[in-house]
User: Fold these one by one.
Assistant:
Number 1:
Amino acid sequence: MNAKMNEALAFLSEKYSVPHGEIVMDGGRYKVIAADGTATALLPWRVERRFFELKNLILNKTLERVSTLRFASITAGGSLKEQLARELDLAAWMLNEKIISLYAVCAKDVAANVIVKFGNDVSASIECSTKLPADGRPIDRHEIIAGRGIASDQAVDTQIPQYSIYAFTDKGEERYTDVDSELFGFSNDEIWIIRAAFAVLSNPGLSAEWNSAEKTMNELAAAVFESDRSGSVIKF
Amino acid sequence: MKPVKIAMMSLTHGHTRKYYQTLRDNSKLDWVASCAEDQTAKDVYELYKTGVPCYLSAEEMFEKHPDIEAVVLASANSKHLEQVKFCAERGIHILSMKIPTFNMEEYDEMIRICDKAGIVCQVELEMHYNPVVIRLKKLLQDGVIGKILSVQATNITLSPVWAFPWQGSPEASFGSRVPLKSGDARFRGGALCDHPHIFDLVRWLTGADFKTIYSAVAPNLREDLEVEDMLLVNGKMSDGTAFLFDPSWSRMEERLKVPGPGWEVFPKRMEVNLTITGEKGVLVCDCFGPNVYHNGAPNDRYTVQYTYFDEWVGLIDEFVDCIRNHKEPMINLKWHKQTIEAMNACYESIAEGSPVKLG
């Protein structure tokens, strides 16, 4: 799939007159290598449009006096630590604040419940689990609770993500959400990887920021398990 | 490929602002100028700080920028014919708004003018470039639900007339002052004229043309409008597909002069949903969802914050490709003609109180 993703990245670079680069897999995560050899960790959730819109609601003051984030992510297998890293980075990026402490309780290596405090006193809860049945569609929720306004990527009175198209046939029910006509045919996960690489190539200033954020999110995710083991609040 | 030098004209259409980012970002384009219909349109344009010069006269714009190759005609429907003539005389390619005209003599004249001038005239029906619609078309082509039997579709929105007053004017929107029906104080030119997309999509998805159409108007939600804001449409396609459309302005709005946050009263200001029944199953589709949701500023109402809106990217890509490579756009004047005829048939049906046959 890397080859096809790189073809798509080259297409975007050509179309928008942006320097070329290459997406590579390194240590279980994707990176983009720029023409000068600079390697940048990709944080695809930072270009996913629903998250971008949620962040904008804070930036443009649609929401005022943010108090608490409630994030959840449930997957069918996969690494709990990777999930935690993503959600912790997403929360810090959305608020543009550093995490100063966390307390976590975990269930084996399949579920974690974390309470996080930020430097501006905002709290966040992060719920992660990997126990959906095999091939189960990921379930997540990202809610921002503020003194003025609540925002979420889930519609009111729904518990699980909605889709753009539902196909009901003798073969059962199938669901589709397509979000990017320029990259139609790729899965949404692949689309955000390509878009993240394109964002870095368009704005090389992101490289240092994202590499630093990757290091931080690794430390935060590791701290979740340390907090669970020690039964203590981990401060940063 | 040499970038296409492009301009925008009039700037009074509701879709005007949706082009700004695409015209700036796409390296195949060089957006060199705009000209506004009047000072009010220019003032609104300048709020968006595009950095592209804006004139109050098309003549002046073309004099100062003789290298303009193409224009987006972002104007009231009643302006389209004169602007098509103006551009064709200069060999300028045209991206027309979704309703070229409702007058079929004028429509045929536009076709003749563009053919004679050898220019590209693409009609802006952006749903064709919506990724959800692309998926829908693929599922149907793949035979997931078999032959289409029935289509229900909504194209329901708030009313844009307070920001774009020409859309509430029978003359500017429909092209003339025609009563809806005997004993009705309203005129043609309202919600129906704003919503061609589902008429177009049913043709595109089925590959068939309209055979019969019935339409009924309901009491207006906005009693001070002189055009219709609520109507329903049903009928049959030439392949037997039964359809039911709601192209109303059924979502209420704050009466803003410039569209912006807080415009909507109902949480979702614009919806294009389709339910398609086939011989082997059913597809239900929301072309503009899911999104993110909030109840923050300015009005603290539950609101859909649209998340995916990139139809304009594909639409402009096709326009540029057609200009540079001498191709005919997918949605050209000739293709679109039957859609306009079907919309006119809705008004005829409303006037007569009975179904209208087409073709």
Note: The domain at 2-235 of chain A is CATH 3.30.360.10 (Dihydrodipicolinate Reductase; domain 2).
Number 2:
Amino acid sequence: MAVLTDRPAPPVARRADRGPRALVNRFLGYAILIFFGLVFLYPFVIQIANSVKTEPDAAAHPLSPVPDPVTLAGFERIFAGTNFPLWLGNSLLVTVLVTLGRVFFDSLAGYALARLRFRGRAGIFAAVIAVMAVPGVVLLIPKFLVLKQLGLYDSYAGLVVPLLADAAGVFIMKQFFESVPVSIEEAARIDGAGVFRTFWSVVLPTAKPALITLTILSFQGSWNEFPHSLVAVQDPGLFTLPRGLADLVSGSLGKGTQYPLKLGAALLATIPVAVLFMIFQRYFVRDANEGADKG
Amino acid sequence: MATEALRAPATTPVRPPRRRGGGIRSNEHVAGWLFVAPVLVILGLFLLLPILMALWVSLTDWNGQGSPFTGQVPFVGGDNYTRLFAEDGLARRDFMTSIRNNLYYVALVVPAQTVLALGLALVVNNRMLKGKGFFRTAFYFPSVTSSVAISVVFLFMFANSGAVNALLGFFGIEGPQWFADSRGVLHLLLGAVGVDTPPAALTAGGPLGLTWWDWLAGPSVAMMSIICLVVWTTSGTFMLMFLAALQNVPVVLDEASTLDGATRWQRFRHVTLPLIKPTMFLVLTLGLIGSWQVFDQVYVMSQGDPAKTTLTPAYLSYRTAFRDFDYGSGAAISFVLFLIIILLTVFQRRVMADRDEPRRPRWWRRRVPEGS
């Protein structure tokens, strides 16, 4: 491998583009892409197709992307026979409140940790980092205990308040504010603007990309949140979409498999995040890459 | 929103006296605490405090009636913990079964998702292919969807008359009844080579309440479907991490080694892989940490069945507390799981912090063998 040649370097990239070998390589590359494209997307095709099939059709031809006949019976039953509209409403309410709370509180704290000098700052930041390591699944019983104790169990407050701030969001905002030049806010400070005013009308507007990222992550996170609602409420009137969906699947509906209905409900629950993903894809992607950089 | 930046400097200084004698500093001090207060209160109240409460409950026999913090609740000390490890009984058998299940789950999920993610990243990173953006999106999309919703889809795909069995049917294979099949994959493999009845030496006894034969069952057929789902949903995220790392590999290096006559595999093995080692470490450890937390999928797809072969510690702790109303045991299981995850996280963070200080790959390489 280390053999040195004294040939003048040919333009490698172009040479590799031609010839039968490159053609085979490229063909192989596309074959792999398309194969895995199918593996990753076909389940969604199956989901959509089977949600508009009749039940016998779905059972007989689960793989077929063509419903025969097309029926909206599953969707009709979702709206008429289940509490889907209620779950949808609850999910919307919880998601909007949690997203607003996280964006506001996380950026406040992120700004303070990045810019304001106060005693205990280093300690608080260390605590935030430590908290990020606490896995959600071990908090199921603890959260239940504290919600009971505070009288928040089985209430909207119980669904929303514990999620209003998250350590990862604080971390993202702190990192961002540290990358903003100090000069802008110093000018504002010298002009006599208070700390909050400087933050609110000078610094925050420059943080738009970070705010969008945080908004999207919070929306996606709270829309999909399942374990928290599992231990925060038991009243079916307070179920969010994932909770209702899980309830639907574990068979309280009885009679038959009802796959078209279940797939349809799951599809409807997926659509908002899917749309968000399509529009703001680069923000999703950026987040994953930031994870790679910082760990 | 953006226009306010222009407006702000216009606010005239009104109260100069406040800025006298370190005024700004104390101002900042108060403001700093006020700014972090909401986050501190929420995290303290719904994260730290509950962990302490659960620690207390794990030392009691609380059954969910009334408050666990009154004198009436029997204090049992470390009993809930010893029952998980030292006393022969149902509690230990279930716990060890869940540990076994999760170990096999980790052993399959982590390598599978890492290899798949890296493979996808390599293909998507290929300079000669078009339409990569679309495929990158397609591979990543499952990662952002709801775990519950996607579990419903996989429940259908792995149903007895579902898509997976229909696909296997094309190849003349009769698929199993996925979610009713508690047979371990290793047992099945042994059966295929003729070991139908377990040797007596393995069924006679074994460590921690399970026989050797039970420990060596492998993941059940039902667990395999959950493994498929998880690998499918997580690979996209890890692919993006690998992609970011691959894009930092200088093209010149690759071309130089091509000139030197290195084969594709040699280039990958000796040029690319060493350069993306930090990301590899990150993906492996994030995978390790994440795969001890599997819960949603188990809840929706199998609830620990069949024959407890999809029981994981996370789900067992939930079930013990909220179905069997044995909150003390449930909390104890949570804490053992907590310990496992925290140890993995601390290990990861220490190695990564070591790496971040001197930014030299060679130094990093020397560090790895000690820990991993």
Note: The CA atoms of residues 154 and 233 of chain A lie 4 Å apart.
